[in-house]
Write a structure and sequence with these properties.
Jelly Rolls; Env_Response_Regulators (chains A, B); DNA-binding; alpha+beta; DNA binding (chains A, B); Arc Repressor Mutant, subunit A; four-stranded antiparallel sheet; 8 helices; Fumarate/nitrate reduction transcriptional regulator Fnr (chains A, B); transcription regulation (chains A, B); homodimer; 11 strands; WH_DNA-bd_sf (chains A, B)
Chain lengths: 250, 250
Amino acid sequence: MSDATTSPLRHDPPALKEVQVSCSKCNLRELCMPVRLREDELDVLDRLIANRKRVPRGKPLFSNGDKFGAIYAIRSGTFKTRINTADGRDQVTGFHISGEIVGLDGMGGEQHACDAMALEDSEVCVIPYDRLEELSRECTTLQQHFHRLMSREIVRDHGVMLLLGSMRAEERLAAFLLNLVTRMRARGFSGSELVLRMTREEIGSYLGLKLETVSRTFSKFAEEGLISVNQRHIRIEQPEKLRQMVGTHA
Amino acid sequence: MSDATTSPLRHDPPALKEVQVSCSKCNLRELCMPVRLREDELDVLDRLIANRKRVPRGKPLFSNGDKFGAIYAIRSGTFKTRINTADGRDQVTGFHISGEIVGLDGMGGEQHACDAMALEDSEVCVIPYDRLEELSRECTTLQQHFHRLMSREIVRDHGVMLLLGSMRAEERLAAFLLNLVTRMRARGFSGSELVLRMTREEIGSYLGLKLETVSRTFSKFAEEGLISVNQRHIRIEQPEKLRQMVGTHA
DNA sequence: CGTCGTTTTGAGTGGTCTCAAGACGTGTGG
DNA sequence: CCACACGTCTTGAGACCACTCAAAACGACG
């Protein structure tokens, strides 16, 4: 396995100049824009992105209440999305990595309904909503693709509801790890190792658990040999047992 | 009612009695289609609906795995949507009443990702997806409206995640009752009385609780005078206290 | 070296679940 | 009409899982 992931998060790319933005040449295109275009539609993708934007670790890409104007394709890095209520309750609604889209919750509304914060230095492609609207009318495949994106987000959320509504702590954490490692593998990373960009508390918020419970469950998994834990480095030792844990209604 | 306004190009077999379908004259329009249309767009809405469909209590409108072809505006009645896994886990993902849209989870995909079952005899308006696509390209306001619908569904789901992830049993049930009564009031029903169309078990599945806990919590609310419970008849006696319960992070 | 945020681990509490029994309303057949 | 079955709902007692409170270890960083 590659040891590219062992270097602590200091992989700042070489001074990224404001290069010309081109979806059609982006190596992430198959993840965020798997759109089959005809010859005469090839330029549509490149007209979609306005520019790129860097977001340093700990900074918001957008916040609850911000005027909605665009959605964002993550080019590199990791984000968490979160809602919070007036009384201090808050809930992490998702972790998002390269090739995924954030901001759909504000689409068509007046303002964003959640925060999106970078968990490491990150970069996104800005997709202005009005441009998306316009190009969707011109290009059926793009229109369909965005409907699919929104629909998948809904289905994903329903999956989280299933997790929160019916799983116990161990099952939730197992499902979380398997989900994350699967998405990382689809991006060329190891299928058995991963580096968590989020704290135990953020994991807990996402999974409806307290941070102590998350920590204890990690320890238990490690004791049982299911995973190895070294700070935020996790190695999946027995993926089959984890899958079994999620897929077997106790 | 005359059906002079229905499209002449309808060749659907008249399985059910083909009632005249007309959004522009529907009294629910402001709920499910609050779209501001120009003079020349007024016919768009009426071209949107293919037909209506009745669904008897206990029968599915669509099921997980069914080929996706349309979304549905609920004209009357109540539905629950539910996902279920191979191992017997299942989760009610929502209760839906008149003026609301179901089926968005399958939009743009190949097949529906959940079940939708009628909790009482109900009727829906069928909105074929290809027609929606086509009309969305012609009519910007319609396009925006459907983006808004999908986005709101996502935001709604995030709210449920907050509930499931951070609230205790009493808070969940209070939030559930307040949400439901608010939606009913928007439809002209009482703002303080409601008839539950779902069982305790279905409520529990939605709220991530066991049916016994739901029952106990109803009883507790009744003891404290917050509500009156008579089978599935609920009267909200002290809405302010319920709101306080939800809005005060313990 | 000290501070800070994060993580781990322990001990005890408490909320929800599990298992169980009985009550209630409804529909069915005798 | 009753008797009965059935699904639903209520209520109780005990178990268990996750939470709370607390303390200490750890790594990062100045």
